[in-house]
Amino acid sequence: MARFNDHWKSSDFPRPAAMIFTGAHDYITSRDYDLPEGVSVASTWDYTQVVIHGEVTVLDDREWVREAAVELTALWDKEEAENLEEKYLERASKAIVGMSMTIDRIEGKAKLSQNRLPGERAKISSTLRDRGTERASKLAEDIDAAPSTARRVPFLGGLHAAKKNNPPLAH
Q1: pTM of structure
Q2: Whole-angstrom Cα distance, residue 27 to residue 13?
Q3: For residues 56 and 66, what is the distance between their CA atoms, to the nearest angstrom?
Q4: Tell me: the pLDDT tens digits for 137-170?
Q5: C-beta separation of 135 from 99 below 8 A
Q6: Which of 68, 66, 71 is nearest to 82 (CA)?
Q7: pLDDT tens per residue, range 23-55
């Protein structure tokens, strides 16, 4: 965190915290559901996310900050990390306050239309891909990869339709 940002001074540390990481997410229209004529249900939002719970500590330690900056840079760009100048690292480590978080609990949630029938899920994925955005396409991939947990049969017209179209059972 930038040293000039007073957040690191305005709270007691260590303190409980949560970090939220969101994955693909998008609007899911109920028009992709197999519903009888005249029946409406709410559209929804499918998503994936992970929440990490733990304790945040402030590390006002220039050497720790320097090492963390080099390590994080190397994670994404090894060549840049190898070419960081000492003068820059010294200046940067004075301007940054380190923060560290222990992990006590991790929670994940994937709401991927698992409760919908396979045919409905195929329509949902197709609609998402047709939007042409990376986010929607990624969500379609996630939906395709998640197993369906649907515990219902396709709507066949209900009891009223069954009475009209089927003769009574003989006893």
Answers
A1: 0.71
A2: 39
A3: 19
A4: 999 999 999 999 987 765 555 554 444 455 555 5
A5: no
A6: 71
A7: 999 999 999 999 888 888 999 999 999 999 999
